[in-house]
Amino acid sequence: MARIGVIGAGYVGLTTAACFARLGHTVVCADVDEAKVSALSRASVGAHEPRLAELVAEGLGTGRLRFVLGNRAALADVDFVFVCVPTPTGPDGAADLTFVDAVLDEARGTVGPDCVIVIKSTVPAGTTERVAAVIDRPVVSNPEFLREGHAVDDFLRPQRVVVGAPGPRGAAGREAAVRVAELYAGTGAPAIVTDSASAELVKYASNCFLAMKLSYVNSLAELCERVGADVSDVTEGMSLDDRIGGAFLSPGPGWGGSCFPKDTRALLSTAESLDVDFPLLRATIDTNHAQAHRVVGLVRDAVGPLRGARLALLGLTFKAGTDDLRDSPALATATLLAAEGAVLTGYDPCVSADCGPVRVLPSAEEAARDADALVILTEWPEFADLDWEDMASTMTGRSVVDTRNLLPPAKVTEAGFHLVPLGRPTP
Ligand code: NAD
Ligand code: UGA
Could you tell me which residue ranges the UDP-glucose/GDP-mannose dehydrogenase C-terminal domain spans (predicted)? Predict the structure, then answer.
């Protein structure tokens, strides 16, 4: 079993650390956030991630996992260092590598001669190669594909493990890449060992492809509305073709989260910097920006001018199953609604503090009190089970815009509501 250092205890770093400890490795997980390290050392996990707190407690209990403030202890006396720090969007749309570079600077003077540095943060093609040229240690790329809300399951049962070494295939770094792939032996996942630029691109290509599928289906939903088709039936029909598949075909208020928006922009920036025209990717991003405006249009059509309209927004996180509000389409929509003068209340099972223009209340019923319309923005399953007779008695208006096609149409309309779904005929 290996000694592993993990730098950054965020969604990816913490999951990596806790899961490697679960797989039997000894892990030191470092962060620069004192409050986070102190909480994690007490097994207090802030993120809403199934099983993560359990695995952290287990790792602390067995002694295979510990948390440290500052990176030194996670860089020295380990066999592998996993770099899991943020790579946000820079001012020009490219990935900002400041955090990664800072960690690698620290690693240069600290890691032992045989230690393998593993870049798990999402970084543009060519980054690992650049780092390897200036650091006298094996460096490999090992992108992460976990989804928030499923982080532990995705890490312990990944569909693939991708590791890339710099230099041409067959170069010395390949041995280090194979050693990294072996760390995941307990997961049973197929491993692809390749060059580092390819590994880095697998990550961007996957996220951007999924985002493209979603922009496609969001445009398709609008077309369905115009021709009187039902997008659910259309996508079901498409999904029975094995070559298409059924995943990532649900329309919504736009795709968001901490990665799709930044990764699509970063890949487009890479392409532009190399004079590669990638109109599909540009259209994927533009279509997504337009989607929040389209939702605002549907709300306007349902309630009339938005100035002074009281709207209850259900769901604020970027998708169900997470407490993450980063780049949430719900908040992008809220900002546009507020800019037109709407007065916003909101409810989300994972959000308690007010968010931008949204006054957050402790229940859907309280958020809906005296509202002119209700807008479903995140697909939390509990919204489908609301008592619509009850909602009707507390609301002033009778419009419900369901951007996730989550609600049972019959129940909502029987309670006297005018339901506006996405890409489906109005019931
Ligand atoms: P995050 O913001 O949740 O966590 C990053 C952590 O790194 C924070 O706790 C921060 O305090 C810490 N940190 C920052 N600078 C540091 C330093 N110099 N030394 C030690 N710690 C430092 O980020 P995340 O969502 O885990 O994303 C990390 C990387 O993984 C990004 O490149 C992201 O694109 C990629 N990724 C994220 C996901 C996801 O679902 N969130 C999935 C796959 C890949
Ligand atoms: C996504 C990828 O799915 C992960 O594989 C990847 O590792 C991760 O990004 C990352 O690089 O950070 P995540 O951000 O957790 O994971 O979210 P997804 O579940 O992919 O959803 C992204 C967005 O698409 C959300 O806003 C979601 O509501 C939306 N979506 C998803 C739809 O609108 N319709 C769908 O059918 C599916």
Answer: 312-409
